[in-house]
Design brief:
The complex is a heterodimer of chains A (246) and B (361).
Chain A lengths: L14 H32 L2 H16 L2 H22 L9 H26 L2 H9 L4 H30 L2 H6 L17 H9 L8 H35 L1
Helix pairs in contact in A: 1-4, 1-6, 2-4, 3-4, 4-6, 5-6, 6-9, 8-9
Chain B lengths: L1 H10 L4 H50 L4 E10 L5 E4 L2 E4 L1 H13 L5 H8 L5 H12 L7 E7 L2 H7 L16 H12 L3 E5 L2 H4 L12 H32 L4 H15 L2 H15 L9 H4 L13 H11 L1 H9 L16 H8 L7
Helix pairs in contact in B: 1-2
Classes of the chains: A mainly alpha (246), B mainly alpha (361).
Chain lengths: 246, 361
């Protein structure tokens, strides 16, 4: 702590970085859940076998790309694009925005959600589909009223796993959303997340015996607890559900 | 569908109740089929969006990155002046810079002002000097002869040749001066500017000269990390899996262990980073920035002294700088190059210094 910060010691806290984390991962989920889920439904229910055998591995390529490459994409392509778009609409968009980071993070999570949802939709027994068709349901009605409710626990588990991935993501945010903590609800502004705050506290040519190191460890502990809880819930759901139809 | 309705109307007289339900269903049928089509199209659109993202991602990375595989070279007639070069025990020393300068002077006529001379000489990369040195060392018979050589161009010239610098911009908004542009265009018209495959991108480590920089250092680091990770995780992971699957009894404890192992995979990588840092800080009492510092410095970690690591680090950095140990010892390089400062990110600063502050921000 610097001398000029002593008086404001009560105003240090994790709220701004947690707000940033929630906003960025919220945007990411808004992108990835609809796209991922609908892709999974299309691939498992509508697409032909050939189409599926090409598109599914292609989608899974997205999961294998290092996140630093996504960060590049966010910082060099998406962020300037959003900025230009915002300028045309008369909005002030900072060159590093939560929206850019969230969008690209959403792209990153699409394969997690689509792949898991696809597996669970396929695991629903054919007898349930046949039952729905024999009652006169159309295909989309079968999917919406029979398949989705049956596969819902698995899908929810997949979404939670994706969310914990989004919360723990670092590189995209470092490169595209900025480094300074900022308590705001505006996705067009610069924000930072818990993970990036840890990075800025620890990386660089600096000493490790300060309180900053302990702050980083505290943030890390919080992050660990949150993702641990999310993962336990998700894994429990996925496990119990898998056993149901096996 | 039409058939069904026809049959329905035939039977309508006998089974009024049924026909009413069927009428209801057929009335809503077109709406339901429309909903079906919309649902299907939404799914297709989602798949299309995902594929579009993949295409965008790969397209943009490729578009931004592929020029790194090429480097620009300038063809100049180099006279290997015996007055400048001396061979002692198979090693060549001499002022290779002045060879390049003379070649440029004879191509364009020596500019009068210092500033213009600096601009002219700055068009050729410092890497060209190293390459000339290696060339003569391989073949000392070159001394006294004259030979056209493709010399590595400076990064600004490289960017210009690859079309990343807009030639139509006014001079003060461009990294290249009008006079340099004129020289480059003169060279281009005589076919003396060409792009070659950039082998140094794969064969050299980071450099303060962008045109000489490569990924070898980073790649080696990645491979080391990969190697250590694999030697650690493959035996432990496979053995744990075999034990849990084949030998361990299925009870609450093994269940708990399995859940925890699964959790490990989903813990954010930055938490593992903190774990690594704490190992450095707690067990080795040293800084991850300079693990060797403790050996050179005081015996214990001095909490009060923030600058404790820095002088030692600079020393280590210097002795590890590959240019100190190999290149400058075998080939006598001009002043300012034989002295190696610590390698680091301060590339631009160093570069501007030895060029007498020619930085064009």
């Amino acid at each position: 702590m610097r001398t000029d910060q002593v008086g404001s010691s009560g105003s240090f806290g994790a709220i701004p970085v947690f707000t940033g984390t929630l906003m960025v991962s919220g945007i990411a989920m808004l992108v990835s859940v609809p796209v991922g889920l609908m892709s999974a439904i299309y691939l498992s229910e509508f697409a032909s076998y050939q189409m599926r055998s090409i598109i599914k591995p292609a989608l899974e390529i997205l999961a294998g790309i290092p996140t630093v490459v996504y960060g590049f994409f966010a910082a060099l392509i998406v962020a300037p694009f959003i900025r230009r778009l915002g300028e045309q609409a008369g909005l002030s968009v900072s060159s590093e925005s939560a929206l850019a980071a969230g969008l690209v993070m959403g792209i990153m999570i699409i394969p997690f959600i689509s792949s898991l949802s696809d597996d669970f939709l396929n695991a629903v027994p054919q007898s349930l589909r046949d039952g729905a068709y024999s009652l006169g349901s159309t295909q989309s009605e079968t999917i919406r009223h029979v398949l989705l409710p049956a596969a819902l626990p698995g899908i929810a588990g997949g979404i939670l796993l994706g969310l914990s991935r989004a919360i723990g993501e670092t590189m995209i945010v470092v490169m595209a959303a900025g480094l300074a903590a900022n308590l705001t609800m505006n996705p067009l502004e610069t924000v930072t997340t818990v993970t990036v705050q840890i990075v800025t506290l620890l990386v660089g040519d600096q000493e490790f015996e300060s309180a900053k190191t302990l702050a980083a460890f505290a943030l890390g502990l919080l992050l660990f607890i949150i993702t641990l809880i999310l993962n336990i819930i998700a894994l429990t759901i996925v496990r119990t559900y898998r056993e149901e139809y096996d | 569908m039409k058939n069904t309705t026809d049959t329905n109307s035939l039977r309508a007289g006998k089974h009024t109740a049924t026909s009413r339900t069927i009428d209801k269903i057929s009335a809503t049928l077109s709406r339901r089929h429309k909903a079906d089509r919309i649902f299907r199209m939404t799914g297709a659109a989602a798949v299309g969006t995902s594929l579009l993202f993949i295409a965008l991602l790969f397209g943009s990375i490729f578009y931004n990155g592929y020029t790194a595989f090429f480097q620009t070279r300038i063809n100049l007639e180099i006279f290997f002046d015996p007055a400048e070069l001396t061979v002692t025990e198979g090693r060549v020393s001499g002022d290779f810079n002045s060879l390049v300068h003379k070649a440029l002077d004879s191509e364009f006529g020596q500019p009068d002002s210092r500033d213009q001379r600096r601009k002219l000489y700055g068009m050729i990369s410092q890497g060209a000097v190293y390459e000339l040195g290696e060339m003569v060392e391989r073949d000392p018979a070159l001394i006294g002869t004259s030979k056209p050589v493709w010399l590595l161009a400076d990064d600004d010239i490289d960017m210009l040749a690859k079309g990343h610098i807009d030639r139509s911009l006014p001079e003060d908004q461009r990294r290249i001066d009008n006079i340099q542009l004129e020289w480059v265009e003169q060279l281009e018209s005589s076919g003396a500017v060409r792009t070659f495959f950039n082998s140094s991108f794969f064969l050299s480590a980071d450099s303060r000269e962008p045109e000489m920089a490569g990924i070898l250092g980073a790649l080696t680091g990645s491979l080391f990390t990969l190697f250590i990770t694999l030697t650690l995780s493959v035996p432990i992971g496979v053995a744990a899996a075999i034990y849990l699957e084949e030998f361990a009894p299925k009870n609450r404890w093994t269940d708990l262990i399995e859940v925890n192992i699964n959790n490990l995979a989903a813990v954010p990588s930055i938490v593992f980073g903190l774990l690594g840092l704490s190992i450095f800080l707690v067990f080795f009492w040293t800084s991850p920035l300079c693990p060797a510092c403790r050996r050179h410095g005081t015996d214990t970690y001095d909490v009060a002294d923030n600058n404790h690591f820095k002088p030692v680090c600079t020393e280590i950095g210097t002795s590890l700088d590959p240019r100190c140990s190999t290149v400058s010892r075998s080939i006598g390089y001009p002043d300012g190059f034989s002295s190696c400062s610590a390698p680091g990110r301060s590339g631009n600063h160093d570069r501007n210094n030895y060029r007498n502050g020619s930085g064009t921000g």
